[in-house]
C-alpha cells in the first residue's frame, strides 16, 4: 500500500538536486569574488593582475557552466553571470576599447544586460577617478558609452522587474557623468 521504493527514488533525486544547488552556489561565489577582484585591479590600473584574473574568472565561469541550472532553487548563477559580464566588459573597455557581447561571453541575454547596466556604475566610478586627474577626454568617452548603452536600453519594453530597476540606474549614472562634465566646463577644464 505504501510505496517505499518510490520514496527511495525521490530521496535520491532530492539529494542530487541539493548537491547540484550547492555546487552552483560554490561556483557562483568563485565567479562573483573573482569578478570583484578584477574590477578592483582595473580601478587601480593593475593590468598585469587583471590579465591573470581574466584567466581565473573565465575558468571559474566554465566550471559554473557545468552545473548551471535555472531549476536549482537559487539565482546565484544568474548573479554570477551578471558580475562576470560586468567585469569582462569593464576589462574590454579599458584594455581593448571594446565591450564583449553576450555571445562572446556565452551567458544568457538577461544576465548580460544586467551586467551591462551594472557596468555603467563602474564606468562612472572610473570617470570620477579620471576627473580628479583632470583626464576629461576619457570622461567624455565614458559618458558617450554610457549614453549609447542608455539609448539601447530605452528601446526595450522592460517589465517592472530587476532588469528594469538596473536600467533606471543607467539613467542616473549618465546624469552623474553629465554633471561631472558640466562642472569641469564651468571651471574651464577641457
Q: How would you characterize the overall build of this protein?
A:
α5 (109-132) packs antiparallel against α6 and α5 (109-132) runs parallel beside α7 (162-186). It is elongated, with a radius of gyration of 20 Å. The protein has 2 domains: 1-100, Methane Monooxygenase Hydroxylase, Chain G, domain 1; 108-190, Methane Monooxygenase Hydroxylase, Chain G, domain 1 (Up-down Bundle), CATH 1.20.58.200. The model has no long low-confidence stretch (mean pLDDT 92). It is 81% helix and 0% strand. It is mostly helical and 190 residues long. 34% of the residues are buried. It has 7 helices and no strands.
Query: Rough shape?
Result: elongated
CATH class membership of the largest domain: Mainly Alpha
Count structural domains: 2
Radius of gyration: 20 Å
Strand content: under 5%
Please tell me the CATH architecture of the largest domain by its name: Up-down Bundle
The major pleated sheet works out as:
none
Name the average pLDDT.
92
What's the count of strands? 0
Please write the string of helix (H) and strand (E) elements. Answer: HHHHHHH
Distance between the termini: 83 Å
Number of helical segments with 4 or more residues? 7
Could you say what the CATH topology of the largest domain is called? Methane Monooxygenase Hydroxylase, Chain G, domain 1
Given helix and strand content, the structural type is mainly alpha
Portion of residues within helices? over 70%
Report low-confidence residues grouped into runs of 5 or more. Answer: none
Amino acid at each position: 500500500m505504501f510505496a517505499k521504493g518510490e520514496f527511495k527514488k525521490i530521496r535520491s533525486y532530492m539529494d542530487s538536486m541539493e548537491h547540484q544547488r550547492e555546487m552552483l552556489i560554490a561556483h557562483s561565489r568563485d565567479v562573483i569574488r573573482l569578478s570583484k577582484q578584477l574590477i578592483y585591479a582595473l580601478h587601480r590600473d593593475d593590468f598585469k593582475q587583471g590579465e591573470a584574473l581574466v584567466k581565473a574568472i573565465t575558468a571559474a565561469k566554465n566550471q559554473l557552466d557545468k552545473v548551471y541550472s535555472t531549476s536549482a532553487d537559487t539565482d546565484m548563477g544568474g548573479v554570477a553571470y551578471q558580475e562576470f559580464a560586468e567585469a569582462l566588459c569593464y576589462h574590454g573597455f579599458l584594455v581593448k576599447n571594446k565591450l564583449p557581447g553576450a555571445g562572446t561571453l556565452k551567458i544568457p541575454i538577461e544576465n548580460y544586460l544586467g551586467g551591462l547596466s551594472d557596468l555603467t556604475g563602474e564606468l562612472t566610478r572610473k570617470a570620477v577617478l579620471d576627473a580628479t586627474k583632470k583626464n576629461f577626454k576619457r570622461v567624455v568617452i565614458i559618458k558617450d558609452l554610457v549614453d549609447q548603452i542608455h539609448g539601447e536600453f530605452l528601446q526595450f519594453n522592460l517589465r517592472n522587474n530587476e532588469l528594469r530597476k538596473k536600467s533606471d540606474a543607467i539613467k542616473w549614472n549618465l546624469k552623474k557623468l553629465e554633471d561631472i562634465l558640466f562642472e569641469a566646463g564651468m571651471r574651464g577644464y577641457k
